[in-house]
Design goal:
Length: 204
C-alpha cells in the first residue's frame, strides 16, 4: 500500500511544496478509501470537506429527472472535488460516485481556513484552481449563449426534442392515466425561423 507521501507524488496541487510543507499537509488531510459504486458526496449535501483524488476514477452526475441522473463527466487522479464550496458554502451541486476503488485525501473547511490564515502555499494553490474552474465555467456559459442566439433554428429544434423526451418520460410515469400530454409538431415555426434567418443573411 502506498504511503501518503508517495500517494501525492506528481499531483499538481502538491507540486512546488517543500518536504516540510508536504508533511504538514499530510498531517491535516485524512486519507479515505471508497469502493466502486460508493458515493463520495451527494448533490444537495452540506459541504464539510473537499477532496483530492489520488487514485481511481469517479463519475460526476446531476439529478435532471428523479429517475435518471445525468452524467456530467468523469474525474481522474489529481482532480479537486468540492473546492468551490470552500468559498460559497452552498450545498453540493452534483453527486460524485466511485467508478472503481478510489483513494482520496480530504480536508475540512475549518482546516483549510487555518491553512489559509497561516499563509500556506497550498491554500493559495487551491484558490488558483478555484479561479481557473470558475473562469472555465464562465467561458463555457458564454459559448453556449452565443450558440443559442446565433443559431435560432438549431436551438428551437433542440428545445422541441427536449420537450418530446419530457413527454415520453411523463407518459412512462403515468401509463394508467387518462390524461395525455402532447407536444405539437413545430415544423411551421422552424420554417418561419429558417426564412427569417435567410432574410437576415441577405440584408446583413
Amino acid at each position: 500500500m502506498a504511503t501518503e507521501s508517495t500517494l501525492i507524488d506528481g499531483i499538481a496541487a502538491f507540486s512546488g511544496l517543500s518536504e516540510r510543507e508536504r508533511q504538514t499537509l499530510l498531517a491535516i488531510f485524512q486519507r479515505r478509501q471508497y469502493e466502486a459504486g460508493e458515493q463520495l458526496c451527494r448533490e444537495g449535501d452540506r459541504p464539510f470537506t473537499f477532496f483530492i483524488l489520488c487514485r481511481g476514477t469517479v463519475e460526476v452526475s446531476k439529478a435532471v429527472r428523479a429517475s435518471a441522473p445525468e452524467r456530467l463527466g468523469v474525474l481522474t487522479r489529481g482532480a479537486m472535488i468540492g473546492q468551490v464550496s470552500l468559498i460559497d458554502g452552498k450545498p453540493r451541486s452534483a453527486t460524485i460516485t466511485a467508478l472503481e476503488d478510489v483513494t482520496t485525501l480530504e480536508c475540512s473547511r475549518d482546516d483549510f481556513e487555518r491553512l489559509f490564515n497561516a499563509g500556506s502555499p497550498f491554500a493559495f494553490k487551491v484558490l488558483d484552481q478555484i479561479l481557473i474552474h470558475l473562469s472555465s465555467r464562465l467561458r463555457e456559459a458564454n459559448r453556449q449563449l452565443y450558440t443559442l442566439y446565433s443559431r435560432p433554428t438549431e436551438t428551437i429544434l433542440k428545445l422541441h426534442a427536449a420537450c418530446v423526451n419530457i413527454q415520453r418520460s411523463l407518459s412512462d410515469a403515468y401509463e394508467s392515466s387518462d390524461d395525455e400530454i402532447q407536444i405539437r409538431p413545430i415544423e411551421g415555426a422552424v420554417q418561419d425561423l429558417s426564412e427569417v434567418s435567410a432574410q437576415r443573411e441577405k440584408t446583413g
